[in-house]
């Protein structure tokens, strides 16, 4: 793939809690230069001024997911009111580990209702789940009306995205739902592998390095 084709799949991300306004502005400037799909920032950075064509994504229940569903829904509603185009919510992992799939679907549905027509991505922390749990979490997200399933926050000690998880997630949700790979993708080879596995969105903080790697592969 050419770097420009990859750039439009990227949520250019800065979610460090200590990120400053100046650093977020640098993120926006770099995203515009690189041609990424969006920037992804913490809710406290909203509202965020961006150039035309650049989307704004944020997170919800981040990074643990251990929040009441009503709190997540309220956070998501506040974010879209402040201009977020997309919201990446972290699931309640307790529900997944205990097999409480109906409750998990209800949580996701509450957030989807809060964001309305805006895009909702559901972070399942795939590295912390078994294959069966990944499948069931993806099915719950699809049933709740989410737009994407997403591998990871990048903050969980179990790890980030894996090719196996992305393949399993894509197989589970089929061709019409989004799959976002995020967490630990720092070079072009890894990004390419995630895309080939079925990811149609990438969460990257090292976007410039990854895209430079694709430029190098083209030569």
Task: Walk me through this protein's architecture.
This is Deoxyribose-phosphate aldolase. Pfam families: DeoC. One of its GO terms (cellular component) is cytoplasm. This protein is an alpha/beta fold. The protein has a single domain (3-218), classed as Alpha-Beta Barrel (TIM Barrel). 45% of the residues lie in helices and 17% in strands. The chain contains 9 helices and 8 strands. Strands 1-2-3-4-5-6-7-8 form an 8-stranded parallel beta barrel, surrounded by 6 helices. Strand 5, helix 6 (131-143) and strand 6 (148-150) form a beta-alpha-beta unit. Helix 3 (69-81) runs parallel beside helix 5 (101-115), helix 5 (101-115) packs across helix 6 and helix 6 crosses helix 7 (163-173). The longest helix is centred in the middle third of the chain and has 15 residues, at 101-115. The mean pLDDT is 97.
Brief overview, please?
The chain has 219 residues and is α/β, with parallel strands linked by helices. The chain contains 9 helices and 8 strands.
């Amino acid at each position: 793939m050419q770097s420009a084709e990859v750039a439009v799949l990227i949520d250019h991300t800065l979610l460090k809690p200590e990120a400053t306004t100046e650093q977020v502005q640098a993120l926006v400037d770099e995203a515009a230069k690189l041609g990424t799909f969006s920037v992804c920032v913490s809710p406290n950075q909203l509202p965020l001024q961006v150039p035309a064509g650049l989307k704004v994504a944020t997170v919800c229940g981040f990074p643990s997911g251990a929040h009441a569903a009503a709190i997540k829904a309220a956070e998501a509603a506040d974010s879209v009111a402040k201009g977020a185009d997309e919201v990446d919510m972290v699931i309640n992992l307790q529900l997944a580990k205990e097999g409480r799939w109906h409750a998990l679907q209800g949580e996701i549905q509450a957030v989807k209702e809060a964001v309305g027509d805006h895009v909702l991505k559901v972070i399942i922390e795939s590295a912390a789940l078994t294959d069966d749990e990944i499948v069931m979490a993806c099915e719950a997200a699809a049933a709740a009306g989410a737009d994407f399933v997403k591998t990871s926050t990048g903050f969980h000690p179990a790890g980030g995205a894996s090719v196996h998880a992305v393949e399993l997630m894509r197989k589970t949700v089929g061709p019409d739902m989004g799959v976002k790979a995020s967490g630990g993708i720092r070079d072009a080879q890894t990004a390419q592998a995630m895309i080939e596995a079925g990811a149609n969105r990438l969460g990257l903080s090292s976007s410039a390095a990854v895209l430079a790697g694709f430029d190098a592969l083209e030569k």
